Amino acid sequence: MTVSELSKATDAAAKPLELAIILPTLNERANLAPLVERLDKALAGIAWEAIFVDDNSPDGTSDEARAISQRDRRVRVIQRINRRGLASAAIEGMMATAAPVVAVMDADHQHDPNLLPRMLQSVTGGECDVAVASRFAEGASTEEWGRPDRVKASNIANAIARKVTGVDLSDPMSGYFMLKAETLRQTAPKLSGVGFKILLDILATSEKHLRVRDFPLSFAARASGESKLDRTVVFEFLVGLYDKWLGRIIPTRFALFGTIGAAGVVVHMAVLALVLAVAGGSFKGHLVSAFELGQTLAALVAMTFNFVLNNALTYADKRLTGTVALIKGWAKFGLTCSVGLLANVGVAAVLVRFGFHEYPAALTGIVVGSVWNFALSSKFVWGR
Ligand code: GDD
Ligand code: MN
């Protein structure tokens, strides 16, 4: 460190805190130290702190963050246990600082920290309420998009977002933005936290019209590790919209779970019909009937269909990966659903005995069974 660098650093330390950078992490161990170095360079002369919000990553990201914090007290750590989710991690990080301005940034080096000083100037100077680093603003570039369909999907989502928030955003899905902590605190009680898209959530929730300014970002390739958000952008976005509008009436995850369950019924019927068509005649005198075989196969296929889709979509943020975890999850899901089926049949049977009509009784059974499946699988299959 040169003398002038040293005096800059001590000046910054003596100044009241100006900016907190919130960095949600999930298995980013190797990215932390180089990132703090880049922040240090980019933010020379600014009094900043960085808060890593780690969801107990198995690779020891929290330990690494604490080790860095021991050397550099501008670095702080929140280690969450039994929690998952980018949006809630970002919100909790932003609520945990005394800095008047907060930024959220990815920890995988895809977001260029050199934009921070200009964003800060714009927010503190009152030029805008929210500074957004945009992958689609004029002058921006994306190194890693590769798949043109992802860019196109983003364009569609962006157009809808513009209508919903009433704000002209070139990149409403951006995970890199900055705003006054006070603005965040005003909207925070109404943010869903499931909200897959936190920036959009803040903008759509705020009662005050928020003025946004875009900062063109060159979206870099990931430095190390892998992306956790590989769902299609449009799906992510539609879920966000649903969550905003109807999520309080029927919780978003349950709605997804139920929709997939309904699709599962169709799959079940298709498999059953197929087995009956193929093997219908050839089972005379056998121990199992074609219907029994078909029904068993159909139930297994439908259950697997439900597991795979829920894992990919409903619980995308807590997705199970790796063969062992998948097989274990599948087995636990099967177990949960078989108990759900008992509850379903049991409730329906009791209702019929009490004089209910068969169809409303069956429907009630289905609802009870689904609620059971949802509640138990969210805890035991995707809980952690
Ligand atoms: N604490 C926590 N909990 N952090 C998480 C979680 C989680 O469940 N999931 C992801 N992260 C962290 C990652 O470690 C990374 O620092 C950052 O959040 C972004 O995750 P990536 O997995 O790198 O996301 P991406 O690069 O695929 O997605 C990019 O585009 C999205 C829009 O399409 C990011 O810029 C996102 O922020 C953006 O919303
Ligand atoms: Mn990333």
Automatic annotation (TrEMBL):
- MF terms (GO), sorted A to Z: dolichyl-phosphate beta-D-mannosyltransferase activity
Enzymatic class: transferase
Which EC numbers does the record give?
2.4.1.83
| Keywords, in A-Z order | Glycosyltransferase, Membrane, Transferase, Transmembrane, Transmembrane helix
Under what name is this protein listed? Dolichol-phosphate mannosyltransferase
Q: Which GO terms describe its cellular component?
A: membrane
Domain (Glycosyltransferase 2-like) spans 21-184
- Gene3D superfamilies associated with the record: Spore Coat Polysaccharide Biosynthesis Protein SpsA, Chain A
Do you know which Pfam families this protein is assigned to?
Glycos_transf_2 (PF00535), GtrA_DPMS_TM (PF04138)
Asked if the Swiss-Prot or TrEMBL record annotates the protein with the keyword Lipid biosynthesis, the reply is no
Please name the GO terms of the biological process aspect recorded for this protein, alphabetically.
Answer: glycolipid biosynthetic process; polysaccharide biosynthetic process
Stated family: Belongs to the glycosyltransferase 2 family.
